[in-house]
Amino acid sequence: MKILSLLFMMSLIAACATTGKSSSKAKESVGTKEAKGFDADLTQYKYPFEVKYFSFKSQEQDLKMAYMDIPAGKPSDKIIVLLHGKNFPGAYFEHVILGLNQEGYRVIVPDQIGFGKSSKPKNYQYSFQTLSQNTKNLLHSLGVEKFYLLGHSMGGMVATRFTLMYPESVTKLFLVNPIGLEDWKTMTGYRNIDEAYKAELASTPEKIKQYQLDSYYDGKWKSEYDKWLEVPTGWLEGPDYPVIAWNAALTSDMIFTQPVFYEFKNIKAPTVLIIGDRDRTAIGKAWATEEMKKKMGNYPVISKQVSHMIPKSKLVMLKGLGHMPFIEDFEAFWKVFKKNLDRK
Questions:
Q1: Is this structure's pTM higher than 0.85?
Q2: Alpha carbon distance 173, 61 (integer Å)
Q3: How far apart are CA 282 and CA 259, in angstroms?
Q4: Could you tell me the CATH number of the domain that includes residue 17?
Q5: CA distance 246 to 197
Q6: Contact residues for 337 (Cβ-Cβ < 8 A; gap 6+)
Q7: Domain count, the chain
Q8: DSSP class of residue 46?
């Protein structure tokens, strides 16, 4: 039976497993704007599973970190943590969560500070170290000390930094089309935060869809991609978009100025790189020279280089897929991901 045909059954099982809640409350439909626009905390946006909050103080601010914690669909002590990319909340892992749930994994999915339903501080010194430490503190509060770790896109940079900072915690690392496989600041000029903020403020629903169409889906739009436009367009229409845009500018600067590229060689955990070979994502490409644009983000090349840098790594290439393999073709992604889940 195909993976996608199992998703409905898995969703029922996963929903019923959630922390003693009734299934009707634990499992919600993703998306749907009930009013025009979203506030900064996505109050009206429904996640696929119950959302909880970890409250803490950082940089003299009271912050809250949203997360989903989905128990395993069958008795097990296996745990995996999923780290989202820059342009999506943790909710986009819904099908991955359901698959992992059926494989006996407890799945924990945080929204980083500045993203999703978590706090959007006006003044915050973003760093991958800080995001990793926040994540470590959240997991410690849940009594979770050892786990598998998966990072997608920007989440791959967070996962890499986390693994370098806390090597005793990560028993296996999965990097799914991670950004940061090269150092972009050596390939193009620097666009400061004010310029990045101005560019974010100039965003429109049409520009957002066009970016996703070109960058993620090879110019081929499917109706199921529509729900992943809801959050960014909802923020545009909501009352807090300047705060969203400012945090987006700050985190873009973090990505551009804080490469993890030079430290891949220090990763101790067994690592699986899962790469859609059509991906050409690169921060800074938009303002690079035409000659340099052709060189940046060549995933078939740079993923092979990085796989040789990481001591215990395996590279899996997904032919014909781009930056969002588990959205673009879940079955193709799940086939290789499941194969490598428990393999030593």
A1: yes
A2: 31
A3: 12
A4: 3.40.50.1820
A5: 6
A6: 96, 99, 174, 274, 326
A7: 1
A8: B
